[in-house]
Amino acid sequence: MKIHLSLIGMGAGHPDHITRQGVAALQRAQLVLVPRKGADKADKADLADLRLALCRELLPEGAATIAPFDMPVREGADTDYLGAVDRWHDAIAQVWLDTIARHLPAGGEVALLVWGDPSLYDSTLRIARRLAPRVDLTTTVVPGITALQALTAAHAIPLNDINAPVLITTGRQLRERGWPDSADTVAVMLDGQCAFQTLDPAGLHIWWGAYLGLPHQLCISGPLAEAGPAILRERAQARARHGWLMDTYLLRRAPDKETSHAH
């Protein structure tokens, strides 16, 4: 089976976050894979709905088969995080193969809309590589608006200070290792537990955003000591209100003085 797989960055779910190149790739597809929540992702039902809405808006009716599939559940990873993730990716790749074989047995053009961007703290490319030994696979990556672009645009700030480095990391790394050495600015992704709570807030400024680019976008910024508690409250309320939440934030040492604000 010969498969051409297009991984299309969809930003935070707003149709305008997909580039014209991404729209063209989506419209070439014969089959569009749409992941649905697993049992451990009960708060992400709307993510599948957003992908389906994008397909309805951007695809001519009947142009492609839309194939939702259930995401495998990742096993507990308290002692073997990397091993658990590796086995989970194997299971996802198998579901992809099964879904493609069912809907496109002769092979062809397959597309997958990727939340954020396929190259930035996303494992879609790693999962796609698992298909190569079993099918004749070519992969095209179409970048979209990343979460960091959407975050800095929402706050109207640059990603870095003049001649200063930026480190992109995860909530798990920040929680386990603390503030990274030699970093002036830290961009934090995949942080469902708000690892900024583990830091000494003195001299730190935070810019936080959720649902970036969507009509219900939320942004809070200010000194971490003041803005941190407000972010925790807003996150809890937003998750209860919408049933899911995607957010990211930027931390910076010794920022320009300004008062915290939300919008």
Automatic annotation (TrEMBL):
Keyword set includes Transferase: yes
UniProt keyword list: Cobalamin biosynthesis, Methyltransferase, S-adenosyl-L-methionine, Transferase
Pfam families to which the protein is assigned, alphabetical: TP_methylase
Pathway annotation from the record: Cofactor biosynthesis; adenosylcobalamin biosynthesis
Database matches in SUPFAM superfamilies: Tetrapyrrole methylase (SSF53790)
Tetrapyrrole methylase domain sequence ranges: 5-227
CDD domains for the chain: Precorrin-6A-synthase (cd11643)
Protein name: Precorrin-6A synthase (Deacetylating)
Organism of derivation: Hydrogenophaga electricum
